[in-house]
Amino acid sequence: MQPRHATVQRTTGETSIVLTLTVDGSGRCQAETGIGFLDHMLTLFAKHGQFDITVKATGDLNVDDHHTAEDVSICLGLAFDKALADRAGIVRTAHSYVPMDEALGFVAVDLGGRPYCVFHAEFATPRVGTLGTDVIFHLFESIAIHARMNIHARVEYGRNDHHKIEALYKALGRALDAATMRDPRLGNTVPSTKGVI
Description:
- The protein is an alpha+beta fold.
- It has one domain: 2-Layer Sandwich (Ribosomal Protein S5, domain 2).
- 33% of the residues lie in helices and 30% in strands.
């Protein structure tokens, strides 16, 4: 079978990013974004989704974390869109609950080509490490838009913001792992009554 793999390069006046994704990987991640907590989340996402990800990003961190974190998420979404191509033969929809100590995260995804993000989470602190908690929704939204998929994410409960965000990234990885699986019953057909995604 054709390997599902993509490399995305994106350069703007604010960031320069090269991201490589292998959908059918082994959970390896080499992330160098300059934002330690984002690197940690990408590593967890890759491990729980069994994706291989390499990302090298430089950005205007002297301003703040927003542009770099956003553009890495854009590139991650673009890489999924490119790697999955016409999305023939995939399961398409899936969901996952993931506990992280006292926190419980839930994510449902639909790789049906319609970009949308619903995000319900409240954070008590302004940032975890150097990553602002106010940007987390936007990171999920950026992935959804550029991967052309639905993401519905929520923190069911929890106290610690690190744990809440970690649960969401792990749940996103696991949901995407299940949704990108090939369904042998579909063969090379697209999982939509429209015939295209």
